[in-house]
Design a protein that fits this description.
Layout (H helix, E strand, L loop, with lengths): L10 H6 L15 E2 L10 H14 L9 H21 L7 E4 L2 H16 L5 E5 L8 H10 L2 E5 L9 H10 L2 E7 L11 H10 L3 E5 L11 H4 L3 E5 L10 E5 L1 H6 L10 E5 L2 E4 L13 H17 L1 H19 L5 E4 L9 E6 L4 H10 L2 E2 L1 E3 L4 H7 L4 E5 L6 H17 L3
Parallel strand pairs: 1-13, 3-4, 3-5, 5-6, 6-7
Antiparallel strand pairs: 2-8, 7-8, 9-10, 11-12, 12-15, 14-15
Helix pairs in contact: 2-10, 3-10, 4-5, 11-14, 12-14
Bound molecules: ligand 7TS.
């Protein structure tokens, strides 16, 4: 494993921050972790703070007047401020902590969608979405009677902006909901341009940034997003914590989704008034340790700089695309390196994607195989499953070489 400086930061020092990367995969085989689109590993800075929280200041937030509760509340709210700065939100009140992208998307559907969508309205999504940006809309469309439409994907794995403009110009689109980066094709969608066009036609835009916020500098105001969702666990943070960013005016007008503790101002047996933002949307005891951990992940990423993270991942992705193209019988999905994030999905002729992943696993290389929660996209591609390698800031070109060696081994195993 290389420990030399690679890309724009010291990769050896970065790798040393992630304890899991030092473990063996199987006895005697180093771990090559290339399943970062599913979840990333965590640096000791995050792990240590989770540990410290439970050892030293574990308490519920926004409730007690005792010292521990004050410390926990301060740390939880400090994490919100870190996230606010990281995504460039105008106010901390626009940063709502959820359990993850899935919950954030469901929150928009159930709170904003339920109050604003009905027969005659169109919600415009895309064929390349993760199920979590399709199913909540299908559930709601069944109840509220609006139409759910999907933009198609070109042979290069991109959205067709002409089709987008045609639909916006001719149909009563109220909401566009689109992934900033596809978790299968890796396509970086032109969400700023899509936001501009949506607004020009009186529609709002919801950006699923689960595969974007962890990998590139992103600013919700320059993007002009109305709603934006992401998960902590895909950006070196803990599981069980995510974010919904939304414009304040939208949040003010939206009814709450879940009812319970902390989201109320005054409850009587005949009625209830809501707490101020963002608490109106944070019912119940939140993921306190996880939010604090996310704040430390944000510090970690900021310390490296998102520009450096992005540059490193672009270098890895270009190298991976180049090397994968050498493998006989391999089909790559998605656009060229300069138009994609750090995700590479592929199939190998004559070998099922699960078998590819299994042979790679025997060689210590962790990738995901299957439909990656994007079945409509796989239907569109005409394959039931693909194998997927996805990179993060700690991966190296040596690890991509290990992936390629594993693929040649798979070809030998299956005598192809
Ligand atoms: N949207 C996109 C684009 C995603 O990639 C994922 C998770 C989600 C939403 C849902 O995020 P969650 O944190 O709420 O689960 N994607 C993947 C994946 O590609 N492999 O495992 C999870």
């Amino acid at each position: 494993m290389t420990t030399s400086t690679q890309g724009v930061f010291n990769i050896g020092a970065v790798r040393a921050d992630f304890p899991a990367l030092a473990r063996e995969h199987h006895p005697g085989t180093p771990l090559v972790y290339l399943d970062n689109a599913a979840t990333t590993q965590k640096p000791r800075q995050v792990i240590d703070e989770l540990d410290r929280y439970y050892r030293e200041y574990n308490a519920n937030v926004h409730r007690g007047i005792h010292l521990l509760s004050e410390e926990a509340t301060a740390a939880y709210e400090e994490a919100r401020l870190k996230v606010r700065r990281f995504i460039g939100a105008a106010s901390r009140r626009e940063v709502i902590f959820t359990r993850g992208t899935t919950e954030s998307l469901n929150l928009v559907a159930q709170a904003w969608g339920r109050a604003n969508l009905g027969p005659g309205d169109v919600v415009l999504s895309t064929v390349m979405e993760h199920h979590s940006n399709i199913v909540p809309w299908q559930i709601l469309a069944g109840e509220k009677g609006f139409t759910l439409r999907f933009l198609s994907v070109t042979p290069e794995g991109k959205l067709d902006l002409d089709e987008y403009q045609r639909i916006l110009a001719s149909e009563p689109v109220k909401l566009v909901t689109v992934a900033a980066v596809s978790n299968v094709l890796g396509t970086v969608n032109p969400v700023a341009e899509m936001a501009r066009l949506a607004h020009a036609h009186g529609a709002l835009i919801l950006v699923d940034a689960a595969q974007a916020v962890p990998h590139m500098a992103l600013n919700v105001q320059s993007l002009d997003a109305d709603f934006l969702a992401f998960s902590g666990h895909k950006m070196a943070g803990p599981t069980g914590i995510g974010v919904l960013y939304a414009r304040r005016a939208l949040l003010d007008a939206m009814p709450p989704w879940m009812g319970g503790g902390d989201m109320i101002s005054r409850v009587t047996l005949t009625g209830t008034t809501w707490n101020e933002l963002p608490y109106k949307f944070e019912a119940g005891t939140p993921s306190i340790a996880e939010a604090i951990g996310l704040g430390y992940a944000v510090d970690y990423l900021t310390g490296l700089s998102m520009e450096a993270v992005h540059a490193h991942e672009r270098m890895l992705t270009s190298y991976a695309l180049e090397r994968l193209a050498e493998v006989p019988g391999l089909t790559l999905y998605g656009p060229e390196a300069d138009e994609r994030g750090a995700v590479v999905a592929f199939t190998v002729q004559g070998i099922h994607a699960h078998d590819v992943a299994q042979v790679l696993d025997m060689h210590g290389v962790a990738v995901r195989a299957g439909h990656h929660c994007a079945q409509p996209l796989h239907d569109h591609l005409g394959v039931a499953a693909s194998a997927r390698a996805s990179f993060y800031l700690y991966n190296t070109t040596d690890e991509i070489d290990a992936l390629i060696d594993g693929l040649y081994a798979a070809r030998r195993t299956f005598r192809i």
